[in-house]
Amino acid sequence: MVIEYIGAIIRSEVANRKERLYESQNRGVYMFRIDNDYVIDATIAGGPARYINHSCAPNCMTEVVSVEKENKIIISSCRRIQRGEELSYDYKFDLEDDQHKIPCHCGAFNCRKWMN
Ligand SMILES: [Zn+2]
């Protein structure tokens, strides 16, 4: 285990509203989808895990674990990580149509060119 992705657990509908609010305030939005119904919002009350970038060849993986009936996102290494190496995981965004594609600049040999 490397770090827990902490923040406020909110329902998807609330997350959609908050995302629009944060964007209207020009805030960086930091959210992690737990499942279809819930999202962790780390925008206001998050930890350093929210700054971990996406990579198509990541050195970490994420998993949802249930601790005393509460879901938590745990970021774990999936291979040996060198000192000073940037941490990354695969954001696994849902696929979007051409107009909503986010380009990927991770630089991995197997980069998929798009994050969604
Ligand atoms: Zn990439």
From TrEMBL:
Which SMART domains does the record associate with it? PostSET (SM00508), SET (SM00317)
Q: Where in the cell is it found?
A: Nucleus
Query: Which stretches make up the SET domain?
Result: 1-92
Q: PROSITE patterns per the record? A: POST_SET (PS50868), SET (PS50280)
State the GO CC annotations: nBAF complex
Record carries keyword Cytoplasm: no
Q: What is the protein named? A: SET domain-containing protein
Family matches, as PANTHER family: HL01030P-RELATED, ZINC FINGER PROTEIN NEURO-D4
Q: State the signal peptide span.
A: none
Q: Give the main localization category.
A: nucleus
The GO terms this record gives for MF are:
methyltransferase activity; zinc ion binding
Q: Per the database record, which ranges form the Post-SET domain?
A: 100-116
**Keywords tagged on the record:** Chromatin regulator, Metal-binding, Methyltransferase, Nucleus, Repeat, S-adenosyl-L-methionine, Transcription, Transcription regulation, Transferase, Zinc, Zinc-finger
Q: Which GO terms describe its biological process?
A: chromatin organization; methylation; nervous system development
